[in-house]
Design goal:
With 183 residues, the protein is of the alpha+beta class. It folds into two domains: 72 residues, Ribosomal protein L6 (Outer Surface Protein A, domain 3, Alpha-Beta Complex); 83 residues, Ribosomal protein L6 (Outer Surface Protein A, domain 3, Alpha-Beta Complex). It has two helices and 13 strands; from the N terminus they run ββββββαββββββαβ. The chain has a four-stranded antiparallel β-sheet with strand order 11-12-7-13, with helices on one face. Strands 1-6-5 form a three-stranded antiparallel β-sheet, covered by helices on one side. It has a three-stranded antiparallel β-sheet with strand order 2-3-4, covered by helices on one side. The termini are far apart. The mean pLDDT is 91.
């Protein structure tokens, strides 16, 4: 029995879940998400809880049982609380700015890099421009946008310059040893 798949999802007060065949629509105060799931799985709504039941103990059904439940739980969390990813920038002259909804990155290239947020994503840049918070209701989309921004200038191992996730550990290298011991 899947430990993740058999857990029950509790619905907050203002979140509604509608199941129409393989389509699931989750509506809450922050927005609306819909996704198609494997039609073999049964999504059962009982009062303020949701449960995912698998039809058989076949390898494929056991493998996707926990995934189905986790994706559904992320939809519920997204429309009720939302998701955020924080990116930080290190390096002389590296900074981030907002121009309207657009994120503008200065990352040591000869030109600024502009990011238009897709529908459902917003950016917050605190004063100083050394970090950006990516906000949205879809966990997958928030993570993908964060990865695209990080990919523009990944942190390098010698000085740590570049874009990295908040709290990310960057493995550092020692650099050149120099002319130690030579006369």
């Amino acid at each position: 029995m899947s430990r993740v798949g058999s857990k029950i999802i509790d619905l907050p007060k203002n979140v509604e879940v509608a199941v129409q065949g393989a389509q699931v629509v989750v509506t809450g105060p922050r927005g609306k998400l819909h996704r198609s799931f494997d039609p073999d799985f049964k999504i059962v709504i009982e009062g303020r809880t949701v449960r995912v039941e698998r039809p058989t103990d076949s390898h494929q059904h056991r493998a996707t049982h926990g995934l189905t439940r986790a994706l559904l739980a992320n939809m519920v969390t997204g429309v009720s609380q939302g998701f955020a990813r924080i990116l930080e920038v290190e390096g002389t002259g590296y900074r981030m700015d907002l121009q309207g909804r657009k994120l503008v990155l200065q990352l040591g290239y000869s030109h600024p890099i502009e990011f238009d947020p897709p529908e459902g994503i917003s950016f917050e840049v605190p004063k100083g421009g050394r970090a950006v918070t990516i906000l949205g209701v879809d966990k997958e989309l928030v993570g993908e946008i964060a990865a695209r921004i990080r990919r523009q200038r990944p942190p390098e191992p010698y000085k740590g310059k570049g874009v990295h996730y908040a709290g990310e550990h960057i493995r550092r290298k020692a650099g050149k040893a120099g002319k130690v011991g030579k006369k």
